[in-house]
Structure formats: structure tokens, C-alpha cells
Amino acid sequence: MLVRKLSALQFPDAASFSLDDEDAFRNLIVWLEDTKIRHYKIEERGPLRSTDPTEWAKSFDTYLENLKCPRKRQYNTPQARMQLLDWLLLYAISLEYSEEASKYESVDTTRNQNDASVDFQLSRAQLEELAHILKLPTDRGTDHELFSAIKDVVVRKLSVRQIAAAEAAKHEKVTQFPLDQQPLGFETGDPLLDKACKILRLLHIQELRELQTQVNELVVSLQQVTANPKTNSKLGQVGR
Q1: Can you name the residues that pair with 238 across neighbouring β-strands?
Q2: What is this structure's pTM?
Q3: Residue 144 backbone phi and psi in degrees, to 5
Q4: What is the mean pLDDT of residues 159-165?
Q5: What is each CA distance from 84 to 29, 73, 97, 157, 218, in whole angstroms?
Q6: Which of 6, 32, 50, 185 has the lowest tally of Cβ within 10 angstroms?
Q7: For residue 207, what pLDDT is reported?
Q8: Using H for helix, E for strand and C for coil, what is the string for the chain?
Q9: Mean pLDDT, range 111-136, rounded to an integer
Q10: Which residues contact 147 (CB under 8 A, 6 or more apart)?
Q11: pLDDT at 112
């Protein structure tokens, strides 16, 4: 899985990278910041290139804090480095493909894959590589449909906005509603089909709530324009 993520980001040493090599780990962090994440300005990236382990550790802790990384600031073992790197790679992937969205959306979906050029086939291979990382099926659908599915996952779960929202909400108390306690309103006679209907019903309710939130935001925006009238007591009338 690690090699796939590194390959998706076109890391030159993806095949030979080892979490046991701490120097390689540091070099990968620098490469991610220089080429993919680019959170710091160029002149601010110097501390991440430090060869002093203590100095680099301090710089890396600050870097993770600036990125609002929710993982523990521990990287003394391969397992700990893997946890941090997994988050950083997903974060880099979300930035990379968000920036390239217009490029992939402009792909001509009327072309037959069998008649595609080498460049077009490579583009399909890259999409499938990313789909594997995101655990999406790749055995059906056009390139445009596959990209749309990838984009939906990135926007819903891996965008900068969603990561920030998840970070802000991680300490909030979540009320759980077991699926078997949810009313369906009818029965199909098949328990599995009933569960599937309940899931679809809950997803529909979620979409309605999102729509209601958007309507509420629109109403608030309109109220800012139409409400709070000014009163001119001299004219004896209310209005602007």
C-alpha cells in the first residue's frame, strides 16, 4: 500500500523506500514539502533539511503542528513513521488531485479505450492506481466515471476543508443510532433487503439535511440584504 501511494505521487524511489531507514524518511518528508504539499515558502523550508537529528525533530514537530496533523508526534520506530507517513501521503494526494481536477475533467470520454494512445492509457493506469489506494473498484466504467468517483472521495473525505472539519469535530460527542433500531415503514420479507433499504433511507435523510443547511444559509444571506430597515422619523415612514 505504501509503494502504491508513493507511486501515485510519482516519488522516484518508491520501489526501494524503507521505513527502517530514518534518513530516507527525512528525505521523503522534504520531497513531499518541496513538490506536493508546499505549505511553507521556499525560504522557510531550511530547518526540514537539517542534518542534525535533534534540530530536525523540532522542525518536523512544528511542521506537523502547522499542518494540523492529528497523528501522534512519534516517529522513532518504523510503525510510528508509517502512521505519520500514511496521513501525510493522503494529505499530499488530496492536494495533488484537487489541483489537477480540471485536467482530468477535460478528458475526452467518447474515445474507446482500445483505440487510445499511449498517453491516454497511462492516464487510465494512474487513475486506477489512485482508485486502488482509495479502495474503489476499477473493473468497470469510463475514465471520466472513474475520475468522478475518485474526486467525490477526495472532496468528501480528503480535501483540506474536510480534514480541518474532522479535526475540529473529533472531540464532539457523537450520538449513534443502531441500524436495527431504525424504522423502515415497510417490510420486504428479506432481512438483508430491509437493511439495504434502511441504509438508502438514512443516506437520503442526510442529503435532505445538507440541502436544508444550504437553504438556511441562503435565507440568512437574503436576510442580511432585506432585513434591518432604517427608520426616517422625519418622513414618518420606514424603509431605506
Answers
A1: 231
A2: 0.45
A3: -65, -40
A4: 69
A5: 10, 8, 20, 18, 39
A6: 185
A7: 84
A8: CHHHHHHHCCCCCCCCCCCCCHHHHHHHHHHHHHHHHCCCCHHHCHHHHCCCHHHHHHHHHHHHHHCCCCCCCCCCCHHHHHHHHHHHHHHHHHHHHHHCHHHHHCCCCCCCHHHCCHHHHHHHHHHHHHHHHCCCCCCCCCHHHHHHHHHHHHHHHHCHHHHHHHHHHCCCCCCCCCHHHCCCCCCCCCHHHHHHHHHHHHHHHHHHHHHHHHHHHHHHHHHHHHCCCCEECCCCEECC
A9: 63
A10: 104, 105, 107, 127
A11: 46
Placement of cell 530516507 in the chain: 24
Of 45, 29, 137, nearest to 89 (Cα)?
29
Higher-confidence residue of 150 and 112: namely 150
Q: Which cell numbers hold the place of 167?
A: 479535526
Instruction: Supply the pLDDT for residue 116.
Output: 41
